[in-house]
UniProtKB/TrEMBL annotation:
Domain RNA polymerase sigma-70 region: 13-76
GO biological process terms, semicolon-separated: DNA-templated transcription initiation
Endpoints of the signal sequence: none
Keywords: Sigma factor, Transcription, Transcription regulation
Entry annotated with the keyword Calcium: no
Record organism: Planotetraspora phitsanulokensis
GO MF entries: DNA binding; sigma factor activity
Official protein name in the record: RNA polymerase sigma24 factor
Domain of life: Bacteria
Pfam assignment, any one: Sigma70_r4_2
Family: Belongs to the sigma-70 factor family. ECF subfamily.
Length: 311
């Protein structure tokens, strides 16, 4: 019997690498940890008797999700003792993810924040079932639980996510239009326009991780949030004068976002959550330099789900 060559094994793995990262990133919300989970999957794939693997994609996805789940459990304490709000690491995404509404929503900063409220098991099960359409039996094997336990976790996760995420949001062109107007108003210090674009009870979450000065608690209300952003064009931030600050509209986590840079480095990212009318209901501002590496490296990531049904 002939065995596949190492080159063939590498080719098979590379074929599914984007899928593995997409699964691991949604489970973890961090780029380096997701990459490590993918690398762990490669190591296990290399050592396995691959002649016994009937479905390489399912096999690799199970390994990657299992590794991601273990990493999430090990980092739980760090997130609970984090200085200020812990937000996921932002990534640059392509228009393909934005065009597929389900993909864009499942990788949005707002959804990843909601997933942080789930237990590690619930989060892994939700991602595999609701986003990637794995069967309960496949998920049970991946997370090393019984099918009954997986079904219960899936039900709990689904209920919790539904309670925190709106059923409807504004269409993508409206989101982009509002983001463009917000960027122009913020850099121009136009507080009135900023107040028009946000809902009365808008919430701003800022993540500086204790590395840079940020609000340690959510900032709530149109007036105070608008004032916060109107200061961008007038006040130095992290040692960068307004005249030296560059603001750019880019796609972040499947939706329109803003990247602020200056003095040769990325300073912060800003992403939005919208209601059905297109008003901004939540803003996620990440300024912890440790979380901006994936934005700074300029790599656009394909985090879409496979087009064909899983089963």
């Amino acid at each position: 019997m002939t065995h596949p060559s190492p080159d063939h094994d590498q080719q098979v793995f590379n074929q599914h690498r984007n899928l593995l990262f997409s699964v691991a990133y949604r489970i973890l919300g961090t780029v380096a940890d997701a990459e490590d989970a993918v690398q762990d999957a490669w190591i296990k794939w290399s050592a396995a008797d691959r002649s016994q693997v009937a479905d390489p994609k399912a096999y690799l996805a199970r390994i990657a999700s299992n590794q991601a789940l273990e990493r999430l459990r090990s980092t739980r304490h760090q997130r609970e003792t984090y200085v200020g709000p812990w937000l996921p690491e932002p990534i640059l995404t392509s228009g393909d993810a934005a065009e597929a509404v389900t993909d864009a929503e499942s990788v949005s900063m707002a959804m990843l924040v909601v997933l942080e409220t789930l237990s590690p098991l619930e989060r892994a099960v939700f991602v595999l079932k609701e986003v990637f359409d794995f069967s309960h039996a496949e998920i049970a094997e991946a997370v090393e639980r019984s099918e009954a336990a997986v079904r219960q976790a899936a039900h709990r996760a689904r209920e919790r996510v539904r309670a925190r995420r709106p059923r409807f949001t504004a269409d993508r062109s409206r989101q982009r239009e509002v983001t463009e107007r917000f960027l122009a108003a913020a850099t121009g210090g136009d507080i009135n326009t900023l107040m028009e674009l946000v809902s009365p009870d808008v919430t701003l979450w800022t993540d500086g991780g204790g590395k840079v000065r940020q609000a340690l608690k959510p900032v709530v209300g149109a007036q105070v949030v608008a004032a916060w952003f109107a200061a961008i064009g007038k006040v130095a931030y992290q040692g960068v004068e307004p005249a030296d600050m560059n603001a750019e509209l880019v796609e972040i986590n499947g939706g329109p976002g803003m990247v602020f840079s200056g003095s040769g480095r990325v300073i912060a990212t800003v992403t939005f959550d919208f209601d059905a009318e297109g008003r901004i209901v939540a803003i996620h501002n990440i300024a912890n330099p440790d979380k901006l590496g994936a934005i700074a490296d300029g790599v656009t990531r394909d985090v879409g789900t496979p087009p064909e049904p899983r089963r």
